Amino acid sequence: QLHWQVYMRNRGEACEEPDYFARLRGACSRLLSAHVGLGYNASVPHLVVDCANGVGALKIPSVLPAVASMGTAVTLKNRGNHAVTPPGSPRSPRADSPGAMTAAAGALEAAGAGVLNHRCGADFVQKDKALPETFEKIGGDSCLCLSLDGDADRVVFFAPKLHQQQRLQHEDELPLDASPSPSSSLKQHHQQQAKEEEEEAVELLDGDKILCLIAAHLKPHLRSVGAELKREPTFGCIQTAYANGSSTRYLEQDLGLSVVKTKTGVKHLHKAALAFDVSAYFEANGHGTVLFQDEFLAALQQVQQRGRAASQARASASHLVDLARLVNPSIGDALSIVLLVYVILTEKKWTHRDWCNMYRDVPSRMLKCVVPDRSLVKCQEGTAEQRLSEPAALQDLVDTLVAKVDLGRAFVRPSGTEDVVRVYAEAATQQEADTLAQDINQAVREFFRAE
Questions:
Q1: What mean pLDDT is predicted for residues 274-297?
Q2: CB of 80 within 8 A of CB of 113?
Q3: How far apart are alpha carbons 229 and 303 in whole angstroms?
Q4: What is the dihedral of CA 260, 269, 236, 20, to 10 degrees?
Q5: Lowest model confidence (mean pLDDT) among 90-94, 205-209, 224-228, 357-361
Q6: Quick one: average pLDDT of 93-113?
Q7: Which pLDDT score is estimated for 163?
Q8: End-to-end Cα, the chain, rounded Å
Q9: pTM (global) more than 0.85
Q10: For 324-328, which contacts have Cβ atoms below 8 Å and span 24 or more sequence positions?
C-alpha cells in the first residue's frame, strides 16, 4: 500500500488510503457488473480467507463489498487480535462505508490470539502444502481458500484435497478450453504422482498457477485490441528459476506466450516486466502483479472512444483499462490479486477445481547445503541462475544427472545472504526428483570436501 501511495503521489494522483480502497472496489465492481444480480456465484460460492494473524485482517474487509454483491459468502480466519465488528452489531460500519460487509459475506469469527504467520499464512501453506490452523473443519467443494502473508503483499490459494477418484472425474469434466498440457510425459506420470501426493492436505494454487490464470485471461483480450490497433501488443510472463516446469510449459506451449526467467527477487522480475506493453510476473511464493505501460494504456483509451472500433475490441479495451486500475502497478499486493482472481474465475465460470486442472505440477525437491565459502560457486550470467560458470565440473555433473530422468531439470545456486548452496530438482516422479536433488547435493558436498 505504501509503494502504491508513493507511486500515485509521484504521478500527481489521489494517493491516500481511502483512495486506494476506492480504486480497488470501483474497478472490481465495474469488472463484475455484467454478473451482478444473479444472487449466487457458482464459481466462488464461498471464499475463506486465512489472514495469517496479520494486518490483512484489518484491511481486507475494505475491498470485499464487490465480492459480497455477487452473493459470495466470505469467512475471515486467523485474524489474531484484530477484531472486525460483525455486520448488524451496534458498532458495525454503515452499509455503504469502505469497511462494510453484507450478511452474505458476514462469517466473521471472533478474534483470537494467534501468532503472526505461525502455522498459517502464504509461506506456510505454499511450502508445507498443509492446511493453516483453524481450517481443519473447512470442507466441501464450494470453498475457495486463500492465505495472505503477514503484511498482505503475497497470496496463495488452495482447496482441501478431493479423493483421488473425484479428482480424476474433475479432470474428465474439464471444460474444452481448459485442456491440460499436451505433454505425453506429463500425462503418463499423473497416476504415480497422485499416489505420492496423498499425504498433502491441499490442492495448492501458488504464484505459478496465479500467473497462468492471469495470462490465459489476458491473451484473448490483448488479441482483440491488437486487431484494432493494427499491431500485436507485446505480452511477457516473468518467472524465476524456481517456477515449476509445468507452468512454464503451459505458458509457452499451450498459450504460445513469451516467458522470461530472471534472478530470484521481485526487483529483478519487475525490471524485466517493464520491457513489454503488458506483463505479469509472479514468484512461486505468490508475490507478483500485472503491469500496463502508460503508452499502451493511452492506446486502449483511444480504442474505447472510437465509434468505428469493433464492439469486441472496445469491450476488451474497457476491460483491460479496468484491470489496470485493479492491480497494483508498483509491487505485489495480495488484496488486489485476490480481487483479480475472483473476477477471472467469475468471468470464465470456473471453479477452483477447473483452475487446479489447468496443468499438473511436476514433482520437485529443494535442498540446501551448508558450505564454508559460498563465493566458490558462481552462476553464469544471463541464465537466471540456472547454470554455473564455476565450478564447471559441477555443472557438467548436474547436466549428466538431469539427462538420466524424464522431465528432469535442476540447478545449483549460492544463497545471497548466508554460506549455503541451494539445490533445486524436478522430475517425472517424486522419488526421481528426491534422488536427483540428493545426488546433486552430495556432489556439492564432495566439491567442498576436496577444496
A1: 97
A2: yes
A3: 8
A4: 170
A5: 90-94
A6: 43
A7: 45
A8: 48
A9: yes
A10: 324/290, 324/292, 324/297, 324/300, 325/23, 325/26, 325/27, 326/24, 326/27, 326/28, 326/31, 327/289, 327/290, 327/291, 328/3, 328/4, 328/289
Taking the CA of residue 27 as centre, how many other CA atoms within 13 Å lie in the half-sphere pointing to its CB? Answer: 24
The three three-digit cell numbers of residue 104, written as one number = 452474505
Place 105 in a pLDDT band, splitting at 50, 70 and 90: very low
- C-alpha span between 97 and 423 (Å, rounded): 50
Give DSSP secondary structure letters for 42-90.
SS-SEEEEE-TTSTHHHHGGGG-HHHHTTT-EEEEE--TT---PPTTST
Residue labelled with grid coordinates 505504501: 2
All three cell numbers of 201 = 492436505
- Residue 286 φ/ψ region, left for φ over 0, alpha for ψ in the -120 to 50 degree band, beta for the rest: left
CB-based burial label for 96 (10 Å; 0-12, 13-18, 19+): exposed
Residue 405 CA neighbour count, 13 Å, CB half: 26
What would you report as the CA-atom Rg of the chain, rounded to the nearest whole angstrom? Answer: 22
The better pLDDT of the pair 317, 172 is held by: 317
> What's the pLDDT at 308?
72
Confidence of residue 292 (pLDDT cuts 50, 70, 90): very high
Long-range contacts of 266-269, Cβ-Cβ distance < 8 Å, separation of 24 or more: 266/331, 266/332, 268/240, 269/238, 269/239, 269/240
Residue with cell 524456481: 242
What's the rounded Cα separation, in Å, for the pair 120 and 123? 8
